[in-house]
Amino acid sequence: MIRDALSDRDWAILGTVAAHRFLTTTQVQAFHFTGHASDLSAARVCRRVLERLRRDRLLGTLQRRVGGVRAGSASFVWHLDTVGDRLLREASRPGPRRRSFEPSLHFLQHTLAVADLHLRLRQTAATGAIELLRVQTEPACHRRYPHLGGGLSTLKPDLYAVTAAGNFEDSWFFEVDLGTESVPRLLAKCAEYEAYRRSGVEQQASGVFPLVVWLLTAARRRAALSAAITKDPGLPDELFRVLAPNDLPALVAGGTP
Q1: Closest-CA residue to 246 (of 120, 113, 115, 119)
Q2: 103, 137, 189, 229, 240 from 140: Cα distances, Å
Q3: Is residue 128 classed as helix, strand or coil in its secondary structure?
Q4: Nearest CA among 256, 252, 27 for reference residue 127
């Protein structure tokens, strides 16, 4: 039986790929092959394990590659295949079978960027600067809350995390922007966070409301979003942080990015 032959690491790889939907070979290596003597050794073992999982239909790869064919196996993008999906659903993830699809380039780039965010948090924790206590990917991080006029809305963060630094525990909602949405659209998402905060649902569940962190690579867009938030009278400045991705470790560790 394939199930009986799976190691703890195999199960962990399946779970991480399922949580993020798509991961590159390099990302799988960063999540699960960190205890090797060298990066070359880790990459070799990672490729061997992934090929075995693909052979057994536990994982599959997209037709689209990241970095092009010249990047070799490191350019593969992995997803759950039929056997892996079935085994995970039987083990701990009830629900209908997840159907595989070839995503758009924008969807794929954003999904991989969110996985990079998760990795950045894990790598920050590995330095001892923080403890990474909890991470929720989509859709587990989605939040339902009531409208003021009745009905329910759904807030959809890209990632939720709880970290600890020193004697303090912090909660975070993360949004990753790749420059494809207008600033007014980002501001509308900020208004959704404020509406959710005003509902009190999160505070009742956890006692606090997370800080909302926007990660934008372009300095001009960071400045534009920060200015728009400050000018909007319906948005409390203290609820949001707008950062470059490289500034994230300093923020979660309690420093000034």
Answers
A1: 120
A2: 20, 6, 18, 27, 22
A3: coil
A4: 252
The torsion angles phi and psi of 11, rounded to 5 degrees, stand at -60, -40
Q: pLDDT tens digits, the chain, 257 residues: what are they? A: 788 889 999 999 999 999 999 999 999 999 999 987 788 999 999 999 999 999 999 999 998 877 655 556 778 999 999 999 999 998 876 666 666 678 999 999 999 999 999 999 999 999 999 999 999 999 999 999 998 777 899 999 999 999 999 889 999 999 999 999 999 999 999 999 999 999 999 999 999 999 999 999 999 999 999 999 999 999 999 999 999 999 999 999 986 66
What token pair was written down for 66? 């990241």
DSSP state letter for 235: S
The SS3 of residue 147 is coil
Q: Are 171 and 208 in contact (CB under 8 A)?
A: yes
The verdict on whether omega for the bond into residue 139 sits within 30 degrees of 0, i.e. cis, is yes
By three-state DSSP, how is residue 53 classified?
helix
| The model's pTM | 0.92
137 Cα distance to chain centroid: 5
User: Alpha-carbon distance 222 to 228, whole Å?
Assistant: 10
> Side chain identity at 36, as an amino acid letter?
H
8-state DSSP, 135: E
Q: Which two tokens stand for residue 218?
A: 């372009």
Residue 241: what residue type?
R
Closest CA relative to residue 248, chosen from 146, 129, 149:
129
Counting every residue written for the chain, the total comes to 257
* Closest to 33 in 3D by CA, of 56, 17, 53, 49: 49
